[in-house]
Amino acid sequence: MMKLKRSENLTEEREREITEVVKSVNELAQIMKDLSVLVIDQGTIVDRIDYNIQNVATSVEEGLKELQKAERHQKQGGMVMCATVLVVLCFIMLVLLILKQLLL
């Protein structure tokens, strides 16, 4: 009789342990599912970051080209203005020279 009771106790203890193992395995499976979702989300975020970095690189290159173009236009504008002033001054000097010759 004692052996039977002892055997029942051992069986119940094993069942509890098996139940605990099943519970632990289920918790581990849930953790793995959650981890899978996190990995997918982070992959999406990394893809978006990569996409934005590529867009920024393209925008920076275009901005550099625009700055170089603006610098060229600005330099050319200054040279054109300088040449125009010189031509006007030469014309004024020529007019003054002609007037001087006429008055003398």
TrEMBL record:
PROSITE patterns: SYNTAXIN, T_SNARE. Keywords: Membrane, Protein transport, Transmembrane, Transmembrane helix, Transport. Residues 8-70 form the T-SNARE coiled-coil homology domain. It comes from the Eukaryota. GO terms for cellular component: endomembrane system; SNARE complex. The keyword Transmembrane helix applies. One of its GO terms (molecular function) is SNARE binding. The chain crosses the membrane at residues 78-99. The keyword Membrane applies. One of its GO terms (biological process) is intracellular protein transport. InterPro entries: Syntaxin, Syntaxin/epimorphin_CS, T_SNARE_dom. Pfam families: SNARE. Belongs to the syntaxin family. This is t-SNARE coiled-coil homology domain-containing protein. It comes from Rubroshorea leprosula.
